[in-house]
Structures are given as C-alpha cells and as structure tokens.
Amino acid sequence: MEWGDISENERLQIEHIRELEDEELEVEEVDEEELSDEDGNGGSAGASLYDTSIVALHSYLGEVEDTHHRLAFLDGCSVLTLPLFYLEDVVPFPEATLPLRVIYPNLIAGVQRAMRQVDAPYTIAVGRLYRDPDNGRIRFSTIGTTAEIKQFRTLEDGSLNIVARGQQSFRLQRHWLDVDGALCGEIQVIQEDVPLRTPRDVVGKLVPLRKSAATGSAVSSFSIQLECQHEEGNDSDEISGGSFERGLSSAERQLHESVLFSCGDSNASDESSSDDEKLDESSQVERSRLEDSISPIQFSKGVADACSGITKRSQILRRKYYVNQLRDASRAFWPSWVYQMYDAYSLAIKAADRWKKVVKAPNLDNIVMKPNLLSFHIASKLPLSESSRQELLEIDGTSYRLRREIELLDSFNKLKCKACLTLVAKRSDMLVMSSDGPLGAYANPHGFVHEVMTLIKTTAIGVTGRPVKEYSWFPGYAWSMTECMICGAHMGWYFTATRKNMKPQYFWGLRSSQVVDDT
Q1: Helix (H, G, I), strand (E, B), or coil: what is residue 218?
Q2: Which residue of 34, 124, 231, 443 is surrounded by the most CB atoms within 10 Å?
Q3: Which residue, among 259, 96, 217, has the nearest Cα to 163 in the 3D structure?
Q4: What pTM, to 2 d.p., does this model score?
Q5: Which residues, at least 6 apart from 283, have a Cβ–Cβ distance to it below 8 Å?
Q6: Where are the beta strands (DSSP E) in 54-134?
C-alpha cells in the first residue's frame, strides 16, 4: 500500500495495528477478585487504554482499495434493479458500515454486476434473512437498505473483501436469479419524510410586564401577557430568546434563568419520563418554591454549580428547548405539548440525551440537529435483538422512529438467551470497544457476517477452546468461542488481551441474533 493514498491519521492507526499483531500471544486467566475495580479494567499504573478507533477500520480484512466513487442519493420512490445480498440475522441501516467476505461464486457475480451497472454503480441491496420462530422456515425481509461499496480487494482465490456503507432504505418488489446465478431484485427507494417542526402559529410567546411599584419582590413583579406578533424576517420555526430576555430587569433575568435550568435538571434526572406535561409541572413547583423560600440570586448560584459539568453545546441545546417549553402559550385547538410529541427536532434532543445516559458513547451532539440521520444512527447501534432493530428500520417516519427509540432506551434492561431465556447480561454491563458504538457488524473468514454487542460482564455463559489470535475483529485481542451454560447455544466470543498492560484485559462479544431483550 502506498502511504500517499491514505491520510496521516489512518497511516498511524495501521502502524499501531501491525505493532499489536507482532506481539506474542500471552493470555492469562483473570481473577476477578484481584481486579482493582468492579468492571475488570484495573491493572498496573502503566496500563494503556485501548484505541477503539482501530476497530472501525476492519483491518482483519487486510489491505483494501478505495473505490474513489461517491454515489449521489437516489430519488425517493425511484425503482431500479440491484444485486441482492441477504445476510442471516443482520439488520442493515443507512450510514452503518457493513464488512463483507464474499466467497461464493453467485455472490461474487453479484458484486461484479454492481461495479459495472450504470444506474447505481457500486451499489448493492442488503436485507435480513431469518428463520420464522413459529415453523423454522427461512424468511426474507422486504424492507432493507442499499449499500455503496467503498473499499474492496480481490484475493488470489477470486474471493472478495469489501467494506460497504448503508445509504437508503428500500422496499423489495420482486426478485430473481440472473444468468450468472446472482440474486437480483427490483426495489423501490423509500421516500424519507421531511423532519417535522412545531408550526410557528401554534403558540404565542409569553413576555413579562414591568416591575410593579406596589411590591418590592422580584417574583411578584411578573405578570404575563400574550405576544401574538412574531419578529419580522424570522423564517426559522425555532423560538428566539433574545427579545424576551432583553425585556427583563436584572433581578427578573436571574430568576428567569434559574427556573430554566432547574426545569432542565428536573427533566434530565427522570429517565423514565418523556411527557412534556411533567416539565410544565416541575416548572410550576420550582416557581412556587422560589417565591416561598430563597432569593433568585441564591438559587441561580446553586443551579450554576450543579450544571458545571454539562458541556457548553449541550447547555445551548437544552436552553433553547426549555425556553420554548416555558414560554409557549397555546393558540391552537391542541396544547403545545401535543405538537412537541411529533416535533422531530425536540425528539432528537431527547433521544440524544437518553443515549448519553444509557450508552454514553459515541457522542451524538454533531448530528442532533439532523433528526433523520440521528434516528438511523441510534437504531443501528442499539444493543438490542435483531428483531427489535428490524422493527425500527421498518418504521415509516422520523418522528415515530425517534419516539420508539426513546421508549427502548428507557425500557430495555435485560438480555436473555434466545433459546432458553436465561438471563445473560444487563444494560449496565455494556462496554464500547469500537468508535462506531456498542454494537457493530463483523465478517468472518467463511463469509458469515455477525452483529456483535460488547459487554464487560455476562452470566451463565461459558468459554470453550483456546484463545486464537488470527483474524481477530479487535486487534490486540485473542478470541475464544462461548456458549450458554444452560442450553449449549453458541452465544458469541470471549476476547482476551495479548499484552499485560492492555486495558481492558478482557470483554465479551454476544451475537445480537442469539439474544432477546425485555422490550
């Protein structure tokens, strides 16, 4: 490989991978009682934290070449013919990375057809193949995702190593085998809806009157009137707080900011609550408490200290959201919180907050104002069973998908063996070992693709066989097979570090197709 063809960052990552692969395999049995912390990540002072970005490179596929092709998005509702790839128990999503090890002649013919087709070059259609739980018959999902081949390599035996990326969801209309034996299908690209916003005319804005001369209390100076006019030239549906706050005195502004942040903290601390009515109730309680107990300035200082750990960007997003909530006065038949239930931008902020609390990584702040992209990203990375994630792919509408994801993030807690329903892990056991998130797709040498969720701890799962260093999805770790100790089903893999100073020293990888969740 010529170093001039890749970026400096990727070059350093590849060199790091090669250094890890050159290390001799030294696997130790880990005694959990000797670990210095409860998640098994303790070690010497010289322990090095694992670089999760190298996992996303899928270096086990070897050196692959960039196709240097960038496909424009296909028009919604357009119909075209593409080679079909049905993967067992894999749910493909837009924007998700999909590694493929193509070894069968009919699939190789399908890739070759994709590379030379005119309508959508380097594009394949990927769907989920699964067994019907009632009768065991093989089924094909009619909703899948188009994927663009980004990198590929042809090996000496004619097989292909491919890295593809999901593009758009589709609906399969019909399928057939062409003369080369490649499975082809006629698909219709699903038209994604435009993310919904609350209409500007639904609510008015609450503005304060001047301080009353009759009383000296900062709280009693508030009286409310409805401002029905919007600022001229404001084409955005978001509500600006500038004109409102400029109309406040110094004391009023301090009280106003205190209430805003107190409502934000109250809403954030309740993980199971997603109703906007609860936000309104908490704001009323905080207002009452302020009137009866403490001064606005004292409360503002206390809240500022409590919020010191929140990032600046998150503060801005939450501030905008809670400003809108507190100052909305309904001008339509339905109250404003009804519209907020389907406002894609408000739902995206809620979903990103839930993700940060439950999953923690990767950070989604950079796509929080792109609700459609955010909804697919969360769906592709949620450590849930493949049936639950297929349900998310088939939901028609960004707002509905985000609402369902918020429910799943709030409710899912336990993972069980699909065969015998034995509890094998909990939500708190999740461990992010890839920069892509806690769940990802990986290809093995035999052409199978597995979606694997990583965890630091499991129960009722046993390790079989000796550790193997070759073809590891996680460079620097050796893998061993695992099975359910109750029914013997293949659950996934156990990964152990090949160096003593690697952190973590071990973790588990469970197949999403072999677990069921409690949602």
Answers
A1: coil
A2: 124
A3: 96
A4: 0.69
A5: 259, 262, 263, 325, 326
A6: 65-66, 79-88, 97-102, 123-131
